[in-house]
Amino acid sequence: MNQTMTTDAIRVMNRDEALAEAFRCLMCWDAPCTRACPTTIDVPGFIKQIAYDDLIGSARTILDANILGASCARVCPTEVLCSGACVLNDLHERPIDIGRLQAYATLDVVFGGTELFEPTPVTGGSVGIIGAGPAGLACAAELTRLGHRVTVYDASDEPGGLNTHGVATYKMDRATSLAEVEFIESLGVEIRPSTAVGTDITVDELIATHDAVFVGVGLDGVPPLGLVGEDLPGVQDALEFIDEVRRGNADLTGERVAVIGGGNTAIDAVTQAAMVGAERVYLVYRRGRNEMRAYPHDIERALTHGVEFVHWSAPKRFEGYGSVSSLVCERTEYQGGKDGSLRLVTIEGTEFSLPVTRVMRATGQAKHVGFLNQLPGVETDPGGRVIVDGGFRTTNPKMWAGGDCVNGGKEVVNAVAHGRDAARDIDRELRSGAAGK
Ligand code: SF4
User: Fold this and answer.
1) Left, alpha or beta for 403 (phi > 0: left; psi -120 to 50: alpha)?
2) Which pTM value belongs to this model?
3) Ligand 1: which of 29, 35, 40, 43 to mutate, most ligand atoms within 8 Å of CB?
């Protein structure tokens, strides 16, 4: 197996560091770390295997539960998931660094070419998967290992979804994501990049070709705010910018950047902008710091890169000749209504301008409503999320769905859990001959 070279964004532990960290683990019988993981990786189990120098066994424990365990080791918010639940926190000690141990354990198998899984003979059906993001890849890998023939259709020229195009490079770079995709392909998964369902292959063709279909299309881009001047050059979607950085096409040297939003994409964009040379970086958010959806550890990282937080401020319009040169904002505050509720309102007469050369929207991604409406019999809720049952089957009995298009946008590890569990349901249905009936 010839894996793509990676330039890892995290420093993977060496053997001595890993052994020292593994021996700190108390191997708790009730493993709160495992319960905090959406894919329920047996954390004390794989750490014990590291302690016994059984790296292959450790990788198997991780990858059996989470085939994207290598990327989850890098992009998961471990501070609030597994390591956040570690009992050592209660003892006022440093929690076990589960993410870096996981990265260490999976390194040789996922990126080094060490064979782990035997090829599985095809004994089942044919499954088409829409989208080669974390949900689609996890579903594809699990189905392949269960003996089904799987084809993944991806509109992008490079598979991997958010892992390849949308996470900050200081968490995981593009090459690492693409190397993990190669590992998934080595299991027997066929991926067709640059193949958009609905354009390059019709939905009807897809349904007719396969015994079952899994929809893992994630979310769309950030929709416009509808403000004056938004079409000026220099105003863009924060995710487009992150993809530019990941492809090595972004240099903001000397630029003044404002990012609008208070979630994880906003915090990634501001930090990333500072790291590619921006002179000043503002994060404009309409509420206070305690109400930001971004994780506290990511906010701290942004602060260490000199990002300036402009709280209680909402964008009003974009100004500039030829390209954006200022972002005009208004101050905001909560006002109490007669019924006791609090409403966020802008305060008249508080306009102010931020001099900028670039503004990025990170105010929440849209759903792929237009595409989802093309899927026959697949219903969505009023929020545009695909409705599924406990096995991730949609209202079309031949179609399953998972990941962000179902949960509205959570972590990579949540998408992996959906894809894996949907695969197990599809396997049960295909082997009972019930899919599509
Ligand atoms: Fe080890 Fe912490 Fe998990 Fe306990 S909670 S098993 S100490 S990682």
Assistant:
1) left
2) 0.93
3) 43
